[in-house]
Specification:
This protein has 380 residues and is of the alpha/beta class. The chain contains 14 helices and 15 strands. It has 2 domains: 238 residues, Aspartate Aminotransferase, domain 2 (3-Layer(aba) Sandwich); 126 residues, Aspartate Aminotransferase, domain 1, CATH 3.90.1150.10. The strands form 4 sheets. Strands 2-8-7-6-5-3-4 form a 7-stranded mixed β-sheet, with helices on both faces. Strands 9-10-15-12 form a 4-stranded antiparallel β-sheet, covered by helices on one side. Strand 6, helix 8 and strand 7 form a beta-alpha-beta unit. The structure holds pyridoxal-5'-phosphate.
Amino acid sequence: MHYLDNAATTYVTKEVFDAMKPYFTIYGGNPSSIHQAGIDAKKAINTARNTIAKLLNCYPSELVFTSGGTEATNMCLKGLAFSNHTKGEIITTKIEHHATLHTAQFLEDLGYSVYYLNVDEEGFIDLDELRSLITDNTLVVSIILANNEIGTLQHIEEIKKICDNARTYLHIDAVQAITHIPIDITELDVDFISISAHKFHGPKGIGALYIKDGIQLEPLIHGGAQERERRAGTENVPYIVGFAKALEVGIKDLAEYRKRLDEYGHYLLNRLAEKGIVYRLNGPEIGEDRLPGNISLTFPNCDCHELQYQLHRQGIYVSTSSACDSNNIEVSHVIKAIYPEIDDHKDGALRISLGSNTKYEDIDAFISAIIPLIKKVDQL
Ligand SMILES: Cc1ncc(COP(=O)(O)O)c(C=O)c1O
């Protein structure tokens, strides 16, 4: 198997799994219990929370554990909307993950006005458009820090200045960014951050919402006092422990990791060019402005679903940037936002996402498999 779909998810490493194991079998108490088994479980959560807070540079009390990135974003946007009684507008972008887009649409149905910012060909938002739309009536601006399809890294500092001037909350979806680019929460100084552990070798089904100290959100889940009454329900102790371990491992040697992923990315593109394959890289050039490891490619006249299927048959796993149902295949909302004139699914994209387990052999296998598939189309 050549797994080149690390943006979809990553595998739990042995190190992370070993850290989690005792919390299934040995320390299995309920963290709310006041006997020793409960105290041990509570201690594990506290230690994990402290570790995560230290690594990301925030207060432990500013982290609320959730079931992942989707819940974190729902908690932020709906929690704000339900606790606010004065402001009626929300601003986001056309290239958000569905966790944000669908939540925004839900809030539109409740009466909020939502503006979806345009992006340029590389996926960057138009700061002037943000300046022109933001008003005293804007409740929150929600922006994807690292785009999951095309890898664009938004310039958050600029966005934050605009939000500060308008006294508006800023939420960022950092699900793809964590362990790929440095994240120092105190330095970023945003109000909310969505995080998900399964994107960096933690287990699926655990994440967090960072909530800046002092901000009150209406909770979405009622039924207990867990997470300082911000998210009821018995905590998932082993997964929380796994989350902290995965972050600890993932954040180590981040600069070296980033450099390696960029080198792999260049290698992949150079090999395609050497073989005379025509492609378009969607999103920014590899480097400062692009999420390391994300390569989104469009091959003219090639159906990306067919390519993905044929690659899959050869044990090479990648994603497509498109949505399909049983009747039709549509270009994804992200590709449509950067190239509004495109509506043929043949202009969709393949997403190859590299990770810590990627080797040159995986990229070579991809190249060897894709060349005949594309040449076959060229000969038609
Ligand atoms: C940018 C982004 N936001 C949010 C999510 C949702 O996270 P989760 O799978 O933890 O719910 C994902 C997952 O693909 C993502 O890539």
